[in-house]
Amino acid sequence: MDLAAKTSVERSTIKKVSTRLVPFVALMFFINYLDRTAISFAGPNGMNTDLGLTAAQFGFASGVFFIGYIFLEVPSNMALHRFGARRWLARIMVSWGIVAALFAWVQNVEQLYILRFVLGVAEAGFFPGAILFLSLWVPAAHRSKILALFYLAQPLTTVIGAPLAGALLGVDGVFGLEGWRFMFLVVAIPAIIVGVIAWFYLPDRPGDAKWLNRDEQQWLTVALEKEASTKTSGAKHGGGLKAAFTNGRVWTLCFIYFGFIYGLYALAFFLPTIISGFEAQFGTKFGFLERGLITAIPYLPAAVFLYFWSRDAQRRGVRTWHIAAPAVVGGVSIPVALYMGSPAATVAVITVTACAIFGALPNFWTVPTRFLTGAAAAAGIALINSFGNIAGFAAGYVTGWLKDASGSYNLPMFVVGGLLLVSAGLMVALSRRAPAPTADTADQLPQVH
């Protein structure tokens, strides 16, 4: 195959993967993120009052999700590596959809804790499994673009999901359920439906993709095998669990990701509550739908910024500053937001924070797949996500506890900002320990040993 033909096949292959696989996996992620954060909409809109929750109890209920999720991440991703993404991701979706629907009938705080924990168990492995699945379908040169398209689902979940949740919260009496209970039920059903579809829709490997022609299947298979063999030639980066768990780069990335996820979930779980507090702070009054629309505001610019920031990373090659610079901006902006003099100014600064966090995340996930492959990639990605998601628990519980202790969200938001700045510092330190890039690695993020 001559160079022109090879380039044409490469373009057509990546385009087909981008249009056939990425939107569907992004839809799965959309539903995933909406179901795990639905509690943030329910809390200040009836659930906290009906169940008699304090801020600390609400924060613990938000965060307890991550305990089972964390411990089962690595085993789940190893199972995905063994049994295939199609079966395993479909199984995960149907499981969490069933559990998510049960929130419609929760009666007390103890039941809420139990269901949130079980939801985490059911969802364990989905996100790192989706990252691994997409990474196994595109060579490194195209991975930043693919992961950015996938990650768009996360901010768009709030852009679409917040007004949707707001509308559903205003619907009382259907099946005898209060609005917040009906909202839980409605957002759970798509997980079951899409999970069943995924079983039949997702291919496990390029050779199973009937929408790729023979040349495209061959090019993609050869490109991925060549990349895998290059990674494993370093010996210590191949292997399985041990290779991932003993790799210093993996553990540094764990701590970096912790800061990002702490900021992400502090916003996700408490932004609707902060917005509902505008009524007392500024004397404003918002209905359910209006609160949903205001909650969505920061996430639409975040989606746009994510897309263009990742396009720049794709064009230049992912650099350290593509990850560290947004972390610095997020770390400075999030505590500043609470000192603004109006709802509009507060939401504007929170928008900057959301742009920063979402701009960094897809570029961050290109890093571990540059030096891990096979079972080590499955274990390493799951380990990073597991460790980072400890922050999902901490963000919910610590933010609520500090709010109860201090009487405001100022102190907990300074904690968020500090952790984002630590993540930025670790990212810079990671890159400076790397050897000087050579001509064939100049377009890649520097890697440390």
Structural write-up:
The protein has about 450 residues and is mainly alpha-helical. It has one domain: Growth Hormone, Chain: A, CATH 1.20.1250.20. The protein contains 20 helices and no strands. α13 packs antiparallel against α20. The radius of gyration is 22 Å and the shape is globular. GO terms for molecular function: transmembrane transporter activity. It is a multi-pass membrane protein. InterPro entries: MFS, MFS_dom, MFS_trans_sf.
Provide keyphrases for this structure.
single chain, 449 residues, Growth Hormone, Chain: A, 78% helix, transmembrane transporter activity, Putative tartrate transporter, membrane, MFS_trans_sf, transmembrane helix
Q: Which helices and strands appear, and what pairs or packs with what?
A:
Layout: H1 3-20, H2 22-42, H3 47-51, H4 55-83, H5 85-101, H6 109-123, H7 126-135, H8 140-151, H9 153-169, H10 179-201, H11 214-232, H12 241-245, H13 248-276, H14 278-282, H15 288-296, H16 299-316, H17 320-337, H18 343-364, H19 374-406, H20 410-432
Helix pairs in contact: 1-11, 2-5, 2-7, 2-8, 2-9, 2-10, 2-13, 4-5, 4-6, 4-7, 4-19, 5-6, 5-7, 5-10, 7-19, 8-16, 8-18, 9-15, 9-16, 13-15, 13-18, 13-19, 13-20, 16-18, 17-18, 17-20, 19-20
